Structure formats: C-alpha cells, structure tokens
C-alpha cells in the first residue's frame, strides 16, 4: 500500500505545471530538445549542428555560439528544463578578469589595493 501511495504522489508531482524534467543540451536528441517549451525544429537543428562541431562547455558558451539566445532566453530555457553540463542557467556578474581581458587600458582598470596598515605589534617593533 505504501508503494502504491508513493507512486501516485510521484506521478502527481511530475505532472504539475512548472515542474520541468531536465534535458541535457549536450546529449539530448532532436525530439527531446523539442519537448522544451519554446524549442521547435529550427532551433533544435541549429543546436544539434553547433553541438556536432563541439559540445557546449557552459551556458556562456551556449549563448555566445547560438544566435538569438541571450541571458533572458537562456533563463527561460533553463526554467523549462534545459541544462548545459548538468547545470541550470545562472547569470553571473562580470569579474575583474573580464575587464582585464576586454582590452581596456590600464588607466581604465581598477587601481591596485593599497598595502594593509601594520598591525599594532608590527607598529610597536618599528
């Protein structure tokens, strides 16, 4: 009886709207990709062709290599169950390395941090 109850609860939970089964972009076939809300034959074929050249290493690479997919669409696709290397999309802010690699001149880059003040023990030794 417990097994039957558990099975019914699981089936109900999986059929709820908004509960999306995860679909891995790097292993899914065309039919599996098209089960994701907002993905049709044209998009799935485009993704499969890009994946055939080389798998997607990250969401950032997926966005970069896929015309028409930006952060907002990546979020919607992720919410619908798409995963890249098992990960849901997560927008991350730019890091200082992206500024350093962007070609910005040193005048535009952040200045190095000032040296820390000496501790009271170090100050007493001076």
TrEMBL record:
Signal peptide, first to last residue: 1-22
Highest taxon of source: Bacteria
Spell out where the chain crosses the membrane: none
- For this UniProt record, give its keywords in alphabetical order, as a comma-separated list: Signal
Q: Which region ranges are annotated with the description Disordered?
A: 94-126
- Keyword Signal found: yes
Protein's UniProt keywords contain Zinc: no
State the name under which the record lists this protein.
Helix-hairpin-helix domain-containing protein
């Amino acid at each position: 009886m417990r097994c039957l109850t558990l099975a019914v609860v699981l089936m109900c939970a999986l059929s709820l709207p908004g509960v999306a089964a995860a679909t891995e972009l790097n292993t899914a076939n065309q039919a599996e990709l098209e089960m994701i809300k907002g993905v049709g034959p044209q998009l799935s074929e485009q993704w499969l062709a890009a994946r055939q050249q080389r798998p997607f290493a990250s969401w950032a690479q997926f966005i970069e290599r896929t015309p028409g997919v930006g952060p907002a669409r990546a979020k919607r696709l992720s919410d619908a169950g798409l995963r890249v290397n098992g990960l849901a999309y997560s927008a991350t802010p730019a890091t200082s390395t992206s500024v350093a690699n962007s070609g910005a001149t040193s005048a535009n880059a952040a200045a190095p941090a000032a040296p820390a003040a000496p501790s009271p023990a170090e100050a007493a030794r001076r």
